[in-house]
Design goal:
The structure holds two protein chains of two kinds. Chain A is mainly beta. Helix content of chain A is 0%, strand content 52%. Chain B is 0% helix and 50% strand. The chains are: A mainly beta, B mainly beta.
């Protein structure tokens, strides 16, 4: 069975600090990989996705993630965080093919302090 | 962009009541929708896959008689929590994606917070 592990449950950073959130997955097949963000009081929104091709994917709001197949990892990065990045971040994995069910990690609560 | 609407956003009701939650895709048709459940401080757990025109597919451990799913049209799926009890209190979220053209990611509703007294 597939699983997704997010190692950081709570992260507190100062503005302008760099961010890296870890995500490792276990799945017996080719996968699509996603990072979703949930701002306080809002629904889940897609940050970025990897389906194939360049393993370094760029998303919205300056986020990027790198798929390292050998490490089964898809870490999320941002060089300089802002206070508005305070949110919960979820890594998710699904089998290839659009619209299929996703397996989510437990989420990382990021708090950015001024 | 693709939008998924979920209603109601918050329900508080007495134990034993049945509660229906609606999930609508507003600007696309979805033959498949997904229902998730999220407990506080935990991840989203897939409950079931809602299939238009056929029976829903439930994940292991999810009681199909407890959580009734009806995918009545290409834009509407409903989840009914029957005879709800306090342990059913949770945050329920649906998702859907436009028909697969280029591996469309899922779009999520705002969720429904269910509180059973």
């Amino acid at each position: 069975a597939q699983s997704v592990s997010q190692h950081n449950h709570h992260v507190i950073l100062s503005e302008a600090a760099s961010l890296e959130l870890g995500c490792n997955y276990s799945y017996g097949g080719t996968v699509n990989l996603f990072w979703y963000v949930q701002y306080p009081g809002q629904h889940l929104q897609l940050l970025l996705k990897y389906f194939s091709g360049d393993p370094l994917v760029k998303g919205i709001k300056g986020f990027e993630a790198e798929f390292i197949k050998s490490k089964f990892s898809f870490n999320l990065r941002k060089p300089s965080v802002q206070w508005s990045d305070t949110a919960e971040y979820f890594c998710a994995v699904g089998p290839t093919g659009g619209g299929n069910k996703l397996t989510f990690g437990t989420g990382t609560q990021l708090k950015v302090e001024l | 962009g693709a939008v998924v609407s979920q209603h109601p956003s918050w329900v508080i009701c007495k134990s034993g009541t049945s509660v229906k939650i609606e999930c609508r895709s507003l600007d696309f048709q979805a033959t498949t929708m997904f229902w998730y459940r999220q407990f506080p401080k935990q991840s989203l757990m897939l409950m079931a896959t809602s299939n238009e025109g056929s029976k829903a597919t439930y994940e292991q451990g999810v009681e199909k008689d407890k959580f009734l799913i009806n995918h009545a049209s290409l834009t509407l799926s409903t989840l009914t929590v029957t005879s709800a009890h306090p342990e059913d209190s949770s945050f329920y979220i649906c998702s859907a994606s436009p028909p697969d053209r280029e591996n469309q990611p899922q779009h999520f509703g705002d969720g429904t917070r269910l509180s059973i007294l």
